[in-house]
């Protein structure tokens, strides 16, 4: 019998604090599978308007609707005695609550243990918060505070359903992992801190290392299903080296902040990642005739920003950068077709480091108490807090130069080291840090809950590679280490000790002081060696307890709302500006937001040449709200019902054709069409 979710009693009217616990199941010994099996699935995570958005803290807005949907994509891999599910979410970060509850929900229907469940994120700053495992980030990551059991349970249900579907659909498969460098589309937003790292002037490294201020590596996991007969449109291998294959799934790991769309925007969106993933998926489809499940997660991005042209932040710039990155990914995907293999060794390791009992590893000890630095309040370089970012000690690059030395080094502690503990209890902070390592053939994927700077990632990568090599484990050697930020929880930032000394935003947000990077590096290396040597490692807290300040933010259904769905007028065109496309807009009246299913299709555009209507396309993409062309916004409520707007951005008409908006049947609401326009 499946274990009921501990959140169920709190969905409608949560108490002031929500307390629950989860007991992880021990991994089972699985039957040995000789060759790779894989499955994929996708789930929509888009909530109704009204949720606080996470990433810009108090500078953020409640979501008013969506410009690009938020999704979870799952790639399931099964080989040998290991079973993995890599979940890629359009969210600020992973969540220990979500990871544990999804593992609990899938336990009876899949063979994926908690150690093999990896929940990564794109780190978009335009998705909801309030689902994280700590009071501190449920309070300060968003513009409103409080853990929301209802939205969290929605995430758990959607993600668990996708993992179960991916496992149920698994079939013989082949995979390949590759890397390509992408230049010119990102920049280091904290260069003065980065150049303090001695590695950038190390004469033993190539001369260009001093200009390596970003992480240019775009990693791509390509998974194909084995097909009968010839490969579809040349999409995979079909030679003596292996059977014909068809694209099934793909995952990108890249290092760039999801901040192409400014904090003033009030719609949910996946930011640059929507365009990156959409372009990759579209190009695979054009080349092969098959549209696989495609997702992405963060690399080491903490000090890496999108290379936005000054004064142009918004969807135009996010699209320009995301689509360009996606084009590089598509070329790599095509090249990997020649490297697909079914002989893939898998392993999984998950270790929860409890700072109450294990603050030390080797010679490295973290401070007993985390501390919030003053420069955190000023914001990061491209999204600063007005006025405050110019005032010492909040201004970046103004480390504390006097006073008694503490474990927090030169950090200006907000409220002082005496008063901050009175305002922020120790238990509000992240106190259990998940470290995860997945082996996928000759690749090791390392997941950590912090936003990792470029050089932090380099040091972890080198240490993990060295630790694995030192094991002397039999079988193919690990030749690629990929480090991913914000996996399985969100715990702030991690800089190198040298970067920390300058106290930019990134250093001020490194809660556990200058030893954070060495601490994480040691744990990642130790776990990687264990996982490669032993196959499956699940070293987690026996009973994971959560005690979170709660508040419901997710809009619920309004009983008795029978507002007639109607379109009071024709669509209208709005001209473009310097930073936005032009768009056609249709307004309509409908029920309250909580009475619609926002994770299901709402709007599409149809076209006609006079002989019937069909779903319109733009550059080969379908014009519905599952892509990036259509936005749906809640404009507010009134005596006659709630007003909504559908916007078709950057419209391109085919000569002689008419167009119309279609409000799709949703949550019992009927389908309604607008007047035609051209």
Number of strands: 34
Radius of gyration: 25 Å
Uncertain spans, ≥5 residues at pLDDT below 50?
206-210
Strands of the widest sheet, in order across it, are 7-6-5-2-9-11-12-13
Structural domain tally? 2
Estimate percent helicity.
10-25%
* Shape summary: globular
Distance between the termini: 56 Å
Count of individual helical segments: 12
* Overall pLDDT: 93
Largest sheet: 8 strands, mixed
Structural commentary:
20% of the residues lie in helices and 27% in strands. It is an alpha+beta fold and 678 residues long. The strands form ten sheets. The chain has an eight-stranded mixed sheet with strand order 7-6-5-2-9-11-12-13. A five-stranded antiparallel sheet has the order 4-31-32-26-25, with no helix packed on it. A hairpin with an 8-residue loop joins strand 33 (658-663) and strand 34. It is globular, with a radius of gyration of 25 Å. Mean pLDDT is 93; it is low at 206-210.
């Amino acid at each position: 019998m499946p274990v009921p979710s501990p959140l169920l009693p709190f969905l409608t009217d949560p108490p002031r604090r929500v307390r629950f616990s989860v007991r992880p199941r021990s991994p089972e010994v699985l039957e040995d599978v000789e060759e790779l099996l894989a499955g994929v699935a996708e789930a929509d995570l888009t909530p109704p308007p009204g949720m606080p958005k996470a990433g810009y803290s108090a500078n953020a807005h409640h979501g008013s609707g969506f410009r690009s949907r938020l999704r979870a994509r799952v790639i399931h891999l099964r080989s040998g005695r290991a079973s993995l599910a890599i979940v890629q979410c359009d969210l600020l970060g992973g969540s220990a609550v979500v990871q544990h509850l999804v593992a609990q929900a899938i336990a009876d229907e899949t063979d994926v243990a908690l150690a093999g469940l990896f929940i990564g994120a794109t780190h978009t700053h335009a998705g909801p918060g309030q689902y994280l495992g700590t009071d501190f980030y449920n309070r300060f990551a968003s513009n409103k505070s409080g853990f929301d059991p209802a939205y969290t349970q929605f995430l758990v249900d959607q993600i668990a359903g996708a993992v179960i579907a991916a496992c149920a659909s698994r079939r013989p498969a082949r995979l390949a992992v590759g890397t390509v460098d992408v230049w010119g589309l990102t920049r280091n937003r904290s260069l003065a801190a980065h150049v303090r790292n001695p590695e950038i002037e190390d004469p033993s490294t190539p001369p260009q290392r001093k200009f390596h201020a970003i992480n240019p590596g775009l990693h791509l996991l390509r998974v194909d299903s084995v097909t009968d007969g010839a490969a579809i449109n040349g999409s995979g291998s079909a030679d003596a080296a292996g059977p014909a294959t068809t694209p099934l799934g793909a995952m990108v790991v890249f290092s760039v902040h999801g901040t192409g769309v400014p904090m003033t925007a009030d719609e949910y969106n996946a930011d640059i990642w929507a365009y990156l993933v959409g372009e990759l998926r579209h190009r695979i489809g054009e080349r092969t005739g098959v549209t696989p499940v495609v997702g992405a997660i963060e690399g080491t991005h903490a000090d890496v920003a999108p290379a936005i042209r000054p004064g142009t932040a918004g969807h135009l710039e996010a699209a320009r950068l995301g689509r360009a990155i996606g084009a590089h990914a598509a070329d790599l995907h095509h090249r990997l077709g020649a490297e697909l293999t079914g002989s893939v060794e898998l392993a999984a390791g998950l270790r929860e480091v409890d700072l109450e009992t294990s603050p030390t590893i080797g010679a490295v000890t973290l401070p007993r108490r985390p501390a919030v630095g003053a420069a955190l309040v000023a914001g990061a370089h491209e999204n600063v807090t007005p006025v405050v970012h110019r005032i010492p000690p909040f201004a970046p690059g103004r480390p504390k130069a006097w006073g008694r030395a503490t474990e927090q080094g030169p950090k200006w502690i907000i409220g002082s080291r005496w008063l901050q503990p009175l305002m922020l209890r120790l238990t509000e902070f992240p106190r259990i840090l998940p470290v995860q390592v997945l082996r996928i053939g000759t690749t090791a994927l390392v997941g950590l809950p912090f936003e990792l700077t470029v050089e932090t990632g380099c040091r972890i990568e080198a240490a993990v590679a060295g630790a694995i090599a030192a094991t002397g484990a039999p079988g193919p050697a690990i030749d690629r280490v990929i480090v991913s930020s914000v996996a399985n929880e969100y715990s702030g930032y991690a800089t190198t000790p040298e970067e920390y000394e300058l106290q930019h935003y990134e250093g001020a947000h490194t809660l556990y002081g200058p030893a954070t990077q060495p601490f994480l590096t040691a744990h990642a290396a130790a776990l990687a060696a264990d996982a490669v040597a032993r196959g499956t490692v699940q070293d987690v807290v026996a009973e994971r307890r959560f005690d979170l300040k709660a508040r419901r933010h997710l809009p619920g259904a309004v009983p008795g709302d029978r507002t007639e769905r109607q379109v009071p007028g024709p669509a209208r065109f709005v001209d473009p500006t310097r930073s936005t496309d032009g768009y056609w807009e249709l307004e309509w009246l409908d029920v309250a937001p909580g009475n619609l299913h926002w994770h299901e299709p709402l709007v599409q555009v149809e076209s006609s040449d006079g002989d019937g209507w069909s779903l319109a396309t733009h550059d080969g993409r379908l014009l519905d709200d599952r892509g990036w062309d259509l936005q749906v916004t809640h404009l507010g409520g009134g005596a006659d019902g709630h007003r909504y707007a559908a916007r078709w951005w950057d419209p391109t008409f085919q000569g002689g054709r008419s167009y119309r908006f279609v409000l799709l049947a949703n949550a019992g609401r009927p389908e309604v069409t607008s007047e035609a326009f051209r």
